[in-house]
Amino acid sequence: MRITIAVTLGLLPFFSLAAKSITDNKFQRHHAKFISGSGPLKLDDALYEKLTATPRDYTLAVLLTALEARFGCQLCRDFQPEWDVVGKSWIKGDKKGNTRLLLGTLDFADGKGTFQKLMLQTAPILMLFPPTTGPKAKADAQAIRYDFTMGSQSAEQVHDWIIRHLPAGPKPPVYRPLNYVRLITITTAVLGLVSFVSVASPYIIPIVQNRNLWAAMSLITILLFTSGHMFNHIRKVPYVAGNGKGGISYFAGGFSNQFGLETQIVAAMYGTLSFATIALALKVPRMVDPRKQQIAVFVWGAVIFGMYSFLLSVFRIKNGGYPFHLPPF
User: Fold this and answer.
1) 15 vs 269, residue with greater confidence
2) Is the N end or the C end of the chain the one with fewer CB atoms within 10 Å?
3) Do residues 282 and 289 make contact, with C-beta atoms less than 8 angstroms apart?
4) Can you give the pLDDT at residue 24?
């Protein structure tokens, strides 16, 4: 009896070394397949069971997904390219397997048994299996699940989540492949824009440098915003309203209300006053004929007088207590 116990105790170190050798061989074998591929390992039910079985001295990240169109998982198809970026980044940055991490993908078409065993009703689901043996083993060997409640995640977000659950040490960064289609598109667009500008510049530059054009644009912008255009967009005001007598009210009483048509009328009044003032200041003095100049002064003066009278009448509608008015309105 004592001899049997002594023999058993003597063989225990060899059994532990054999178990360690088995787990090491399992990691090395599948890590070689991982780095020889173009992304995460493609799993099925059998390989999933084999890689998640204990003892396990490595970390395993598995994406359970449903990529076929008949399953209708748009989130799965949106996230798959990002997951492939994570896998390719790990292959490129950890060829020696120093982080002891494997990444795999289990599609529903290849792993119906696993989905049924885990009683999964949704996809995608990312699960991280920590090591159960070795110096980096976790006390709680339960799989950690990643939350996709916020929709599709980027490769950087998933990468950060994975490295938070790995032991301290250097980790490979995310390497995004160069998007040649986008690069060619941007280059073509830039070259086309430069070519267009170089050809059309003799015609465009005089227009851009035209002071009258910029003055007109500035005046239109000023009239647009001083007349209450943004107020209409913010408050969603009606265009017109009834006056209670079968007619239409073009102006809303009070300073906190206005109609859409009211804004256009006020802008037209301001525009007419501005144009008349500019004509009196710039155009009339340049007229050579004194008689025509005199007529122009009276005409534009009458326009300003009448429009300002109308403006005061509108202001009295907005503010019923305003005491001043100017004939004829």
Assistant:
1) 269
2) N
3) no
4) 59
Pull the structure tokens for residue 183: 């690069």
For residue 92, give the nearest of 42, 40, 35, 41 by alpha carbon: 35
The Cα–Cα gap between 40 and 106 comes to 10
- Does residue 254 contact residue 226 with C-beta atoms inside 8 Å? no
Q: How far apart are CA 175 and CA 93, in angstroms?
A: 9
Residue located via tokens 């290849």:
110
- pLDDT, residue 195, reads 93
Rounded to two decimals, the pTM is 0.55
Give mean pLDDT, residues 20-27.
63
**CA 223, 226, 232, 238: dihedral to nearest 10 degrees?**
-70
- Strand 125-129 versus strand 59-65 pairing type: antiparallel
pLDDT at 295 over 50: yes
Higher pLDDT, 85 or 256: 85
Q: How far apart are CA 125 and CA 148, in angstroms?
A: 7
Closest CA to 167 of 105, 101, 88: 101
What is the Cα–Cα distance from 314 to 113, expressed in whole angstroms? 78
Beta strand pairing status for 101-107 and 41-43? parallel
Could you give the CA distance from residue 192 to residue 199 in angstroms, rounded to a whole number? 11
- Which residue from 282, 277, 283 is spatially nearest to 300, judged by alpha carbons? 277
Residue 178 token pair = 């160069």
Residue of 45, 63, 52, 61 whose CA lies nearest to 26: 52
Residues of the chain above pLDDT 70, percent: 93
Give me the phi and psi of 152, to 5 degrees please: -65, 140
Calculate the CA 186 to chain-centre distance.
19
Strand segments (E) across 194-261: 241-242, 248-249
Q: How far is CA 252 from CA 82, 229, 256, in A?
A: 56, 15, 9
Query: What sign has the CA pseudo-torsion 205, 209, 212, 215?
Result: positive
